[in-house]
Amino acid sequence: MGNKKQLKFRDNLDRTSYKPLRIDKRKDFLKQIKSLIQNSTRPAIVDTYQEQLEELFFLRNPLFRFGKNYKKGLNKFLKTGIKNQSSNFSGEWFFYPWLDSAVHFLPEKLYLELRTGRNKNLITKEEQEKFYSSLIGIAGLSVGSHVALTLAMTGGCKKIRLADPDIISGSNLNRIRTGLTSIGINKTIAVARQIYEINPYAEIQLFKQGLTDKNLKRFLGRGKTKLDLLIEETDHPYLKLKIRELARPLKIPVIMAADNGDGAIVDIERFDTNPKLPLLHGAVGSLTAENLKKLPPEKLPAVMAKIVGAEHASERMLKSVLEVGKSLYSWPQLGTAATLCGSLLTNLARKILLGQPIKTGRYNINPDLLFFKRGQRQNNKIKKLLKKLGV
């Protein structure tokens, strides 16, 4: 066979936009739409406004769900919903650059009511409003991405700060809800896009360079900009200690989950109720972030093991950690555990933000212990593995 000429393709994927643009209805609506989509080959107009209104009507009037005598009430509701004008000019339109789509939404309050309608009465109206108005920060967007998206799905935390310096790689696809087209996109951008697709009214602040000594205080905030809750999922032991040292005097509660095989090790630190708590339940003793910098590299794995609760880790997880840099590129993480962590932390976040009495502590959530007779126990094998890690 003769040599075939190699085709050259130009990668032109949009990897930078992440915020939808609100279309101003006071100006020439059609002109704005045309201007926004002029560079698109196949622009999409997504207009399900009437369907959204209809579903909202049935959520408010559940007795009509199985009846037939609802048309008069529905028609009146629809007329009220579009205020006797063209439905095009009701609600809000947002253009998503990365989707090449203009999407029609209900006004913010009605949209929140619609998409959280099935939360009732597991979450009351008052609880939903408080949950939605909270401000949280998520540092680290592997496990943290699952928390962010589950928070958005459940109608929580309109205001959110996201921090992670990493881009999505192929090996992230086993635990992050995205596809191959997201490779090369900063994790904060990828997560922000998904949140905005759920809630275009969200207010998201990105820390695309990750957290550093220069921006940690800005990330945590102060006064009216202070976080109501911090979800800490970073990989670096220094940052794990430093951010807690700063969060504690600010009385910001911190929660964290470390994946453990198919399970999770969950940490809750209620600095909001007790600002004198030892960091990480005293797991690292009197070690400070500054002193950690002075430790030789060979001692860092032992510190990290103490931080994430390696004493609760499964045998396979401990064996795998010992193989990092030898037969393994990095420590293993499963999508099952990442998803579980996202669910657990979202549940805890909501309850802490709503003032429920969630206790400080470290908790081992192990499916093996629940579903199998021979679960992972603190046996001699595990003790030997912990000793090798220096724990």
TrEMBL record:
Keyword check for Glycoprotein: no
Chain ranges of the THIF-type NAD/FAD binding fold domain: 121-366
GO biological process: cyclic threonylcarbamoyladenosine biosynthetic process
InterPro entries membership: ThiF/MoeB/HesA (IPR045886), ThiF_NAD_FAD-bd (IPR000594), Ubiquitin-activating_enz (IPR035985)
TM region(s), chain numbering: 131-153
Key words, A-Z: Membrane, Transmembrane, Transmembrane helix
UniProt-listed Gene3D superfamilies: NAD(P)-binding Rossmann-like Domain (3.40.50.720)
SUPFAM superfamilies on file: Activating enzymes of the ubiquitin-like proteins (SSF69572)
GO MF term (any one): tRNA threonylcarbamoyladenosine dehydratase
Source taxon at top rank: Bacteria
Entry protein name: THIF-type NAD/FAD binding fold domain-containing protein
Organism of this sequence: Candidatus Doudnabacteria bacterium CG10_big_fil_rev_8_21_14_0_10_42_18
